[in-house]
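User: I want to check something. If I give you two sequences, will you return the structure for each one separately, not as a complex?

Assistant: Yes, each is folded on its own. Here is the first sequence with its structure:
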Amino acid sequence: MTDLARGATLVTATITTGLIAGLFYAYAISVMLGLNRTDDRTFVGAMRSINVAILNGWFLLAFLGAPVLIALAAVLHLRAGAGAALFWIVAALVLYTVVLLVTFAVNVPLNDQLEAAGGPGRVMDLATVREQFEARWVRWNVVRAVASTAAFGCLTWALVLFGQSSTSA
């Protein structure tokens, strides 16, 4: 049962981390590039709508579930003395912690600042609101995309090592 719990936890940690990595990657390579081509009114309105829409159960399940599952996988592997996979799981946890720190220290405050500025119909200087938001938000989202993708890679490798150790046992 211990191998089953370790494997299932590691798989779900990998899936949730992969979903978040994909989300930040999609923003980096399409959403923000597309919004960059819009006028200030459209940009501000769209980002405000996205920031509200993303706060849903499915997003929160993956975004907050990933670090919990990674930590649980680390504890289960530590208890079992599974050293090779454990290193990569801990590395993933460190990388995902970077994602959380960047999100809560940079991206969420920028989202809150954008919300506080008001809707496009109420803001006098949309260009300034956008200027104070866009470049910094995009730059730090790329950091989140890279860190979460690296965490996903670490967990994928941990799965390989876990699978190797399970078949040789």
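And separately, the second sequence with its own structure:
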Amino acid sequence: MMVMHRIYAWFRRHRLAVDFTLVAILWLLFAATTLLGSEAAGSFVIATLLVLPLAWRRARPTTAALVIAAVAVVQWALAIQPGPADVAVVLAVYAVAAYGARWASIGSLFLALLGAVMLVTRFYTDLTMETVANLPSTAFLVVMVWVLVLFSWTLGDLTRTRRLREQALEGRTHRLEVEQQQERALAASDERSHIAREMHDIVAHSLSVIITQADGGRYAAAADPSVATATLQTIAETGRASLQEMRRLLGVLRGGEEASTRPLPGLADIDDLLLGFRAAGLELSFEQSGKPRRPLPAGAELTAYRVIQEGLTNVLKHVGPCATAGTSLQWVARGLQIDVLDDGRGAAAYPPAGGMGGNGIRGMAERIRLYDGTLTAKPAPGGGFRISAFIPYTEA
């Protein structure tokens, strides 16, 4: 089967060479036959002119059929006896039906049927007083030629239908491949954005706490060396927690069977998050009101956790010393309202595009939009900076 498939593929790639080879073989056979007749010269020329256009029967089917039809008319007008080369007419009908335009296919069929009548009445019927007696045999010959022409045209039309179907399937396959490539590219881009958000949230938070603790501990240790021990303990705990989250994230990316499908924290871990910021020296308050009508999806809880983490990390990095922050979670009828407010320097404390080159606030906005929520980040009216996010319930 593989050998036949390769042979068929080779024939499709070298169609013109195959056609010229077949025409050369037919021409040698028909030319040798015509040289045996009484009208050798005329028959040889007609046979040559009938056979040669078949080399372009697939590349230029309509042109080849018109040339063959013209030669056949000349043969009829000069009364040159038909020979084996006249089979080129039937082959031309097949070629036009298979590879030509629809109008050319129908036109070649009618011309061939008319040519059959002209052929029989010209060369195989005696137009004398006995014509009426020869009508049955004449009609029989005409019908026989018509059957041959119709068979050739039908076979060509079926080939045309199959070819168009194959082209449609190839086009559809190509479109599907393009769509799959685009979907893979979009999925890869979305995954890269997701990984970038996770990496930013983990690394930015952890490094901010570590840097703050290291700077504060360095100055405080000069006056009280015991502070260095507590500072190093906070740095170590923060580093271990970040390393654990990184390992969980990488475990999910590797796709292992034992990897957790929810490797990152949620609302239940808010208290531990706040303890880490308080240990870093940030004075903050936390309020929670209302009761959830139903639990949020795990991804929405992770989004809420990241919003609080990013907001407090920005306070720690940008607002400066002696600033305080407040965080509140309020369960309302439609979902969860999250607010992070500081009393620092307002808009002057934040770069124009958000923290970390814009990845911080932009990442929060992208997370919130995934759950049809809203996010606002702007200076508060009484001073400081406020980040407000709302995550609605996912209604069935």
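Because they were folded independently, the notes below concern the second chain alone. Residues 202 and 242 are 6 Å apart (CA to CA). The chain has two domains: 2-177, 282-396.
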